[in-house]
Design goal:
about 20% helix; single chain; alpha+beta
Length: about 475
Amino acid sequence: MDDLVELALRVADAQGVVHADVRVLAPQRYIHLGVRDGAASALTDATSTGIGVRVRTDRAWGFAAATELSATEARATARLAVRLAVAAGRSAPERLKVTEEPAPRGGRYTSPMARDPFAVPHEEIVALLSDAEARLHVDRAIKSGQVSFQAWDETKWFASSDGGSYRSRIVHVGAGVQATAVRGGEVQRRSLPSSFGGDFLQGGYEFIEGMHLPDLAERAGREAIQLLDAPTPAAGPTTLVLGSDQLALQVHESVGHAVELDRIFGSEAAYAGTSWVGPEAFGTLRYGSDAMNVVADATEPGGLGTFGWDDEGVAAQRTPIVHRGTLVGALTSRESAARLGLSKSGGTARASGADRAPLVRMTNVNLLPGDRSFAEVLEGVAEGIYLETNRSWSIDDRRLNFQFGTEIGRRIDHGELGGLVRNPIYSGMTPEFWSSMDAVGDRASWHLWGVPNCGKGQPGQTARVSHGASVARFRHVAVRGG
């Protein structure tokens, strides 16, 4: 692999090229095992390889990729990347600017793990999933049960023409359960520990073993049955307390995407992607209340957005995004950071594979914990609602107007959690919503949630990211039943 990378770099060092970098992924492996209604529903174990070459002239980028790892393909891919950059440069309106960054020198990064999930026999995993799925059927009203396991292995060689190089092996794992209950015309779904396939972490199979999937499955079945008889919430403004997993998705959609600097500059506009944030907003825009503190942290242990270096060779770092309600930072690449006038990139340029060019992506965008226990967050709520586990979501291209539905809710009555409500929906506008947050839970309710399905770009790229959040309280939020 080192020889292929060096060969591609030599060929890419053509006349007019000022920078080149090469990524080789070998392997990029994905496992998906699932059990649904007592039978295997997913038995996938797929492996791919690839080489991606990116070059820059003084005016434009060129990128090319191939799946075959051979000297012939490495040369051809590098030559094509050069031709594309030269061709694009003929119509470029101005010179490209990028930040100057220290290059990694033979860096190494490996996901910490006690038990490699790719060394665990499939039969052992399927037996665990089958046991959990059987426990899920607590009543005849449970019409469908599903338990799934997923794992990703990305082994990468990177080198650049400025002498930078690193190797990394990043492993992500996750699992989840889902129960569907039906009675008459009413259908209710309960997903644990979260929706979108469950919860995910960078690490080993020990994370799956610690999830206690059979116990989660039994709980999911019981709560799905209970939701069939629960009332819908009353419509109107109320005090809202969001559970950690739902608040993590709220951070993802209304903060994370909105502060991607390429979206702010309009580069994503063709794919439902701009932002209500302007490039002049940093340091002055009130994003939320004083209780709001958000960081993008690519060093967070266990995060799906944690790494040694990004796909431009920029070291992982922790960047403040919102401090006491004021927008202070963004997610950046070397090019977008230079365009904003910053001296350094935030190190958030990532690609979903060797066949995709890096673009600005979330790392681990976390809402920092506050100083309130869960009980203290509930205190002072004479009448309100507690919501968790996303069921549906909608947000406009600017990440401004949103509506989220959750799987489950509970009434709050004078600081105490009460009965269940079904099909709750809340809506709002991003700055007003975050400005209404007046209490954030402490570290005891804070959890780092893995999100495996963040889509962006043309051609599309699916990234895995994480968001840490505690419970939090919001005043005067519009809530209704779906």
